[in-house]
Write a structure and sequence with these properties.
Layout (H helix, E strand, L loop, with lengths): L3 E6 L20 E4 L11 E5 L2 E3 L17 H5 L4 H5 L3 H11 L3 E5 L11 H20 L5 E5 L6 H13 L4 E4 L2 E2 L2 E2 L6 H10 L3 E4 L5 H4 L5 H22 L2 H4 L5 E4 L6 H9 L12 H6 L3 E5 L5 H8 L4 E3 L14 H6 L6 H15 L3
Parallel strand pairs: 1-5, 5-6, 6-7, 7-10, 10-11, 11-12, 12-13
Antiparallel strand pairs: 2-3, 3-4, 8-9
């Protein structure tokens, strides 16, 4: 059995911007250390982009992560900085061996938040990141694969970058559940979905602060993570189904990551219950799962057997969230799933291998 981690991460570093177009070199993200006797504490490093800091741990618009990996917190993790940042590929692969993982699909960290008001700069940052990840993953013997990032406010550029990223080895493309001020069902994104279908690339709706107007409402870590980071994943699910995107693009594959799956029963009830509050697509959510359009990442403290009544056994995957330390992190993904004696050996095999291999076309 080939064990596939469906959602791991990289902590971006200075080298991430080594592929940045010359015209944008002066606008490159700058890593800055902050005194730890501030609200940042041990997470005392930020990126400076367009005069703003990322992460932002004080005031409205709060969001949190551990890139750049030069903070006291990053250095104190059990994962070496080189493995976090992919500057030490051998170290990263050694960690995979230790964890019993054969392949990781790697998502960004910094791009979990909106980075630049200037769309052209955002596009340039995406291109540099994708090129950098392609180079790093090429050194891993196919054990590290990457999800591309694209500047969805510029759909034409996103379509171009999608093709370039696929040519460099991308196995998916990431999007937040709300893109700035637009829902995923907005017809402006239809050319993007059409190209994802043509390239046979899954679209991964991932936890993230993708809507600045929503993020700016909150100034505590818990409410920001839940209301501005996690809930948009569920909003994206509703939008794609209720706006008929999967009917318009029946070959589209969409995965919902790092939000758990405990929300599925409520979402199904809202869309197909006896008194549905929302109009769905031409088919029920169950049918979209059954037809292979939809996947969802479960978490190990959830009632997975119950959730298969909604998503089915063939459309659920599992993620380590390595090297992050947030609530979705699974320190021993393989070992802990093995302890779930309530799940059949065959279902465990599907979750760890068959399903993510099918999702990412591995």
């Amino acid at each position: 059995m080939k064990v596939i981690d469906a959602d791991a991460h990289v902590e971006e570093c200075d080298d991430t911007w080594s592929f940045l177009d010359a015209d944008f070199r002066q606008q490159r993200p700058l890593p800055i250390l902050i005194d730890p006797d501030t609200p940042y504490g041990r997470n005392n490093a930020v990126w400076l982009i367009e005069g703003k800091v990322f992460p932002k741990l004080a005031g409205r618009g709060l969001h949190t992560f551990a890139t750049p990996p030069i903070s006291l917190y990053a250095k104190s993790k059990p994962v070496a900085v080189g493995a976090q940042s992919l500057t030490d590929i051998k170290g990263r692969l050694a960690d995979l061996d230790r964890l019993g993982i054969d392949c990781q699909v790697v998502f960004p960290t910094l791009f979990l938040v909106t980075l630049a008001d200037d769309v052209a700069l955002e596009a340039a940052l995406c291109r540099s990141y994708n090129s950098w990840m392609a180079r790093n993953c090429a050194e891993s013997g196919d054990r590290l694969r990457f999800a591309a990032v694209v500047p969805l406010r510029d759909v034409a550029e996103s379509v171009r970058e999608l093709g370039r990223a696929k040519g460099m080895g991308a196995v998916a493309v990431m999007t937040p559940g709300v893109v700035w001020d637009k829902e995923l069902g907005n017809k402006d994104f239809f050319p993007f979905y059409e190209e994802a279908c043509r390239l046979d690339l899954p679209v991964c709706v991932h936890f993230g602060w993708g809507a600045p107007g929503l993020t700016d409402l909150f100034q505590t870590v818990g409410t920001s993570r839940f209301a501005a980071g996690l809930l948009p994943v569920i909003m994206g699910f509703f939008s794609l189904l209720s706006c008929g995107v999967l009917d318009e693009f029946p070959r589209l594959t969409v995965a919902f990551l790092e939000a758990g799956a405990g929300w599925l029963p409520h979402a199904f009830h809202q869309l197909e219950g006896a008194r549905p509050r929302f109009a769905g697509g031409k088919k029920s959510p169950r049918e979209y799962f059954k037809d292979g359009n939809l996947y969802v990442a479960v978490e190990l403290d959830e009632d997975i057997t119950y959730l298969t009544q909604f998503a089915g056994e063939d459309q659920i995957v599992l993620a380590s969230d390595y090297p992050h330390g947030d609530p979705s992190h699974e320190e021993d993904m393989v070992g802990e799933l093995g302890k779930r004696v309530d799940l059949s050996p065959r279902l465990r095999e599907k979750i760890l291998s068959d399903n993510p291999a099918r999702l990412y076309r591995l």
